Amino acid sequence: MGSRWRKAKLALGLNLCVYVPKTLDDVSPSDSWISSDPTAVSPASGASDFRALMPSTPTPTSSGLRLSKSSASSKKACAICLAFMKPGHGYALFTAECSHTFHFHCIAANVKHGNHVCPVCRAKWKEIPFGGPTSCEYPHGRARVSPVNWPQDDGFVNVLRRFPRVESLNRQHRLTPLFHSSEPTVFNDDESLGSLAETAEEIQHGCMRMVEIKTYPEFSAIQQSVSEENFTILIHLKAPFAPMMQLCSRNSHRNTNLLKTSRASVDLVTVLDVSGSMGGTKLALLKRAMGFVIQNLGPSDRLSVIAFSSTARRLFPLHRMSESGRQQALQAINLLTSGGGTNIAEGLRKGVKVIEDRKEKNPVCSIILLSDGQDTYMVTPTSGGAQPTQPDYRSLVPSSIRGGTGHQIPVHVFGFGADHDSESMHSISETSGGTFSFIETEGTIQDAFAQCIGGLLSVVVQEMHVGVECVHPSVHLGSIKSGSYANQVTDDGHNGSIDVGDLYADEERDFLLSVDVPPAGEETVLLKVGCTYRDPVSKETVNMEGVEVKISRPLIVVEQTMSIEVDRQRNRLLAAEAMAEARAAAERGELSEAVCILEERRRILSESLAVRSGDQLCLALDAELREMQERMASWQRYEASGRAYVLSGLSSHSWQRATTRGDSTDSSFLQAYQTPSMVDMLQRSQTMSPASRHPNIQMRQAKSFPAPPQPG
Fold first, then answer.
1. What is d(CA 168, CA 173) in angstroms, rounded to the nearest whole number?
2. pLDDT at res. 580
3. How would you label 352-365 residue by residue, b for 16+ Cβ within 10 Å and e otherwise?
4. Within a 10 A sphere around the Cβ of 104, how many other Cβ atoms?
5. pLDDT attached to residue 17
6. Which positions fall inside the VWFA domain (predicted)?
7. How far from the centroid of its chain's Cα atoms is residue 22's Cα?
8. What is the CA radius of gyration of the chain?
């Protein structure tokens, strides 16, 4: 038997002259006849493709004419297809527990037919690659995420499943190919929600809690004979806390199911930059971060994945993150490759299309956009002429979701690294109603995603509308300072409103109003503040009765102290205004002026009542302004990180929502808007060791992935 096998190998290696591809380490520049296109050596390409790679006249020195017996060569060739294995050439690799490595699609096809032993050492495997499409199912011979002409990148992610469970899943849920040669024109293939929505409504009934409304006048009393202009009133809102539904379901025999559906489910679309500059470490860490997101989505949440470079493609339809859904999503992430330019607009267009075309809707929907580059396709100056003008960043956002259209989908944007266009990223987030985060170091990308989804998975209030009514006929509203939230004051000054939108569990909002107060001889009721909102689980509309704002009117006011709450929020607004002014000065090239603006504002804040009282928010604001001063010390520093840092700070303060800034999410001034759900998710991310970032993903350490500069 052994003799026959040796003869077969001899015939295969010598008589047929089948070329055994070299590894990349073995290829020299003189080997010009070896194709540089990795698709040329695809196992599914056919014999003619392999013959095309052979030298026209084999010579005794042609190493490709025989199978190498060296251990080094055998480790670099797939034992199934005999083609070389090299990270960065478009093939996902699978390393088994016996330490032998194969092309992922080769071993997946092998396992698909019931073979659960190693083809090399015949060891029995406890874990095998999750079954999926093989190379023959793709028009170009291998599973592709990118268009045919995209350069390929690393694939060191192994998606594992215990093989008995794989067989069970394959019987219960037939897997379909992840990627197709062409996309549907309408993305109405979202997975049905089934009875999950009905169960959620059933849980919510009778367990709903209310938003908390508090008001604080600047002073508690105004002298009877005195009239005050621009008298400040603070409106403080706080959303219900997250665990309330779990308490309501403790006595139910369906406790486990109730806990899973006690919050509003999410439709999440991730739009990921896979341009050339995202190669190496960046792409590896992005895959890891997406694995964390997939792990922490529930079975009623749905996820879709869009990848973009020079063009965009939907890699994964909007599917529920059930056990099988997670595995398919991990397969899609596993196959991400990098290459090409940066077409942010096309990526967003596809992401919005997924949401707009869906047949069914979860109560919450959002888009996460990550990019490390500058859009090279859509960003153009707003007008012609000799002088360059501000690019039209609004053109990056599909018109259907821009502010004021009534169909706003928040895009939470993450600018990755020093080379991204922070101005366009910030503009996208502001236009859509999302936040902008600046990921300065590669290692914090998972933490940034964790903080964001910690909020998205805890939405308890939607479409909140705050109404303000002047009770005293001589009291008139002046202005409403609400940051990026739209507000309106009627012409007669008797009514006003603020559109707050969504609130995460335990999230707080603070708005400052100014009113004109007339003389009066008795206690004056200035305003009545109420709100309406929709509960995302029960879909019921909640109407909160108005809370009255009163001040006393004594004959003489001897001495009184300003409200600490009002002073705190006034300082926050003053700090945000200083950031905006400093940024404008920096963009004019006046860095010294920008630093002076920040320094002067710090001095003013230091003299305020809240700072003198040791208020933590105001102390954090001072630290934040000081950090911005340091990042404006030179133009090089400002270009590299200062601009993005300031814009992320402005985004955070204008929406009163936590963003990631710089190289850490632990600084005290970054915790001002964090909710308990955000903190919990962030701690999950930070306490996971690199080896256990996700139970179904194994990845080489980041240091194994070189990250040379690449275009795009």
1. 9
2. 97
3. bbbbeebeeebbbb
4. 28
5. 36
6. 267-460
7. 40
8. 30
pLDDT value at residue 3:
59
pLDDT digits (tens, 9 = 90+) for 528-539: 999 999 999 888
Beta strands at 157-162 and 127-129: parallel, antiparallel or unpaired? antiparallel
CB half-sphere exposure, 267, CA atoms < 13 A: 26
Q: Token digits for 252?
A: 């139910």
Supply the pLDDT for residue 247. 35
Strand positions, DSSP E, 506-581: 508-517, 524-534, 541-551
Distance from the first to the final alpha carbon of the chain: 56
Q: Percent helix, strand, coil in the chain (nearest 5)?
A: 35, 20, 45
| Domain boundary assignment for the chain | 90-120, 565-648
Tell me how many helices (H) and strands (E) the chain has: 20, 20
Residue bearing tokens 């000081």: 626
Distance of alpha carbon 86 from alpha carbon 200, whole angstroms: 48
User: What's the pLDDT at 706?
Assistant: 36
- Long-range CB pairs of 134-141 (<8 Å, 24+ gap) are 134/105, 134/108, 134/109, 135/42, 135/43, 135/44, 135/105, 135/106, 135/109, 136/44, 136/109, 137/177, 138/44, 138/177, 138/179, 138/181, 139/181, 140/39, 140/42, 141/39, 141/42, 141/43, 141/44, 141/45
The H-or-E segment that residue 329 falls in is helix 323-334
DSSP 275: S
Instruction: Give the residue from 291, 433, 268 showing the smallest Cα distance to 355.
Output: 268
Q: Helical H runs in 545-699?
A: 564-587, 591-606, 609-612, 616-631, 635-637, 643-655, 676-687
Upper half-sphere CA count for residue 402 (Cβ side, 13 Å): 8
Which residues of the chain are modeled with pLDDT < 70?
1-76, 79-82, 87-90, 97, 109-110, 112-115, 122, 126-182, 195-208, 242-261, 379-390, 403-407, 663-670, 689-712
Displacement of CA 584 from its chain's centroid (Å) = 28
Kindly list the distances between the CA atom of residue 120 and the CA atoms of 44, 75, 506, in Å, as whole numbers in the listed order: 21, 11, 56
For residue 483 the two structure tokens come to 């940051």
Residue whose entry in the numeric block shows the structure tokens 């502001």: 430
Number of residues assigned to the chain: 712
Contact in structure between 264 and 460 (CB atoms under 8 Å): yes
Residue 11 burial class via C-beta count within 10 angstroms: exposed 0-12, middle 13-18, buried 19 and up: exposed
**Residue found by looking up tokens 């956002």 in the block:** 397
